[in-house]
Amino acid sequence: MKVLGIETSCDETAVCLIEAEGDFGPSFRWRTLGNALISQAALHAEFGGVFPNLAKREHAKNLVPLLKEALKSEPVSEAKGTPIVSDLSEILQREPDLLSQLLPFLEQHGKPDIDAIAVTHGPGLEPALWVGINFAKALSLAWNVPIVAVNHMEGHIILSLMEHPDKLEYVGTSGHLKRFEFPLLSLLISGGHTELVLSKQFQSYELVGQTRDDAAGEAFDKVARLLALDYPGGPEISRLAAESRRQGLPLHTPELPRPMLHDDTLDFSFSGLKTAVRRLVEAGKMSDEGRMGIAREFEDAVTDVLVEKTLRAAEVYGVNTVVVGGGVSANTYIRMRLKDALEKENSLTRLLVSPPELATDNALMIALAGYFHAREKDFSDATNLSASGNLRL
Ligand code: KG4
Ligand code: ZN
User: Fold this and answer.
1) Which whole number is the average pLDDT over 48-57?
2) Is there an atom of ligand 1 within 6 Å of 270 CB?
3) Do 43 and 159 belong together in one domain?
4) Which terminus of the chain, N or C, has fewer Cβ atoms within 10 Å?
5) 331 Cβ inside 6 Å of ligand 1
6) Which residue has the higher pLDDT, 173 or 384?
């Protein structure tokens, strides 16, 4: 089965085509036939965070070129997409730029041999989600292919379960599932989420812990801003922290709090950390070493809490497979600390994580999650499909 994945929930526009076969289990196989992504991070940097209307405009501009790229090596049938111009115009009435690129594309390009279109319908920024959804609806109509609505967070989890070559830059790279057993505990850490999710079986998700205020990635981004670092803040803070550790510099900073470390819930809270950093920054002029020290202490504080709560949740629920997903899981220090802690505490516990370049948003994760729904014919009714900014797992 061939599935086209579309991701536009935040500031990455991405399209990916996979071919996959088999049920969820050892016989499952997939191959990437095309993969294309444009990150808008540099454009949003000037606003210090994602600016929804800019994201929406950029998605509309990028989707058709990315689709062309993702379908580049695909044989197409003689039959062209049959754009029913009035219907497509209605679907894309809020995306005139996208419509003006899509119509000529459909007229020139033959229909690809695909079985389903998987698109993120939440959670995320609604104006951004809508562009991907409307694009999927237009393609579905023109090519007569069903749509699968995918939860972005399920995409992050499923991608971390996959074994595959680190690089996806070449076509034909293939993968399969890592070996593990349910129950599974997922730590989801991204710009919008910090959650511990228990899965007793495939596609079942029970929220067992969550942030009460800022998400981990949001905290990284806000603290980076306080330290006058670029957006996205995670990689910048991580770079400074690593440099401070490498040089063995003294911290130059008072210890930051470890919020909710010892309370008896599996919840998190990160906004106090940001406030503590703000106080330090406002207290006086800061040297480069001072900023590196804060970055390192901040990363340590976030990591201490993530590790402690994940270990505790794994113990409470008797889980020996822990999945980490979401953009913050690109952080090498957090990965290393989690792996050390889990495997030291219990040598039977395994940590499943995707390669760092696939930890942040992409469309492969959407295509893979979409495949399993498509296999069960869990399709969406295009007329009722809508963006759901706060969609839960
Ligand atoms: O999953 P993602 O790409 O988008 C959302 O779904 O939110 O996550 C983006 C978040 C941003 O907050 C970014 O700062 C953070 O992931 N991030 C990192 C790192 N790389 C990205 N945080 C810490 N360390 C990193 N290396
Ligand atoms: Zn994400």
Assistant:
1) 93
2) no
3) yes
4) N
5) yes
6) 384
